[in-house]
Amino acid sequence: VAGPRPVIEFLVNRCRSLIYSTSLAPAAVAAASESFAVIRSESERRERVQEYARSVRRGLSIDADPIEACVPIVPYVLGEDKRALAAAASLVEAGFYVPAIRPPTVPEGSARLRISLSAAHEPAMVESLIEAVKRLA
Predict the structure, then answer these.
(1) Reduced to 3 states, what is the DSSP secondary structure of residue 100?
(2) Cα separation of 37 and 60, whole Å?
(3) How far is residue 7's CA from residue 1's CA, in Å, rounded to a whole number?
(4) What is the pLDDT of residues 68-108, one digit of tens each?
(5) Which neighbouring-strand residues pair with 77?
(6) In 10 A of CB 57, how many CB atoms?
């Protein structure tokens, strides 16, 4: 915590989330700090993963506003828990890890697949994923 000494002392002694937590390891802090430098210097990674997100949403006919359209976590709503679990299992068999997200994490009747994209993926991988998800329908 950074701030005036009385504020720091109050927070250290009264904030439950601070009192009952463990600070990050120095290596994790260093890695997070370095990631900011990478984000600033390698914008092509961000642009690539945003394009993958737009491609997946287009390919699966998922409506999204312009800002949401480039977020690299794509929800594919299937509705029923059993259907989402079966779809996730089918995708694992096809070589994709796309977990099923079910209540209570999401509202009842809105179970979904959580597609998480990365700049490390290749365009062919993204296309294969889109085709594999389409086959689930």
Answers:
(1) strand
(2) 34
(3) 9
(4) 998 999 999 999 999 999 999 999 999 999 999 999 999 99
(5) 112
(6) 21
74 closest CA partner among 58, 95, 87: 58
Are 60 and 113 a contacting pair, CB within 8 Å? no
pTM summary value: 0.75
CA pair distance 23, 20, nearest whole angstrom:
10
> What's the chain's Rg over C-alpha atoms?
20
Rounded to whole angstroms, how far apart are CA atoms 31 and 40? 14
Helix axes 123-136 and 81-93, enclosed angle (nearest 10): 140
Distance CA 125, CA 32 (A): 27
Give tens-digit pLDDT for 32-58. Answer: 999 999 888 999 999 999 999 999 999
Residue 114, beta-bridge partner list: 75
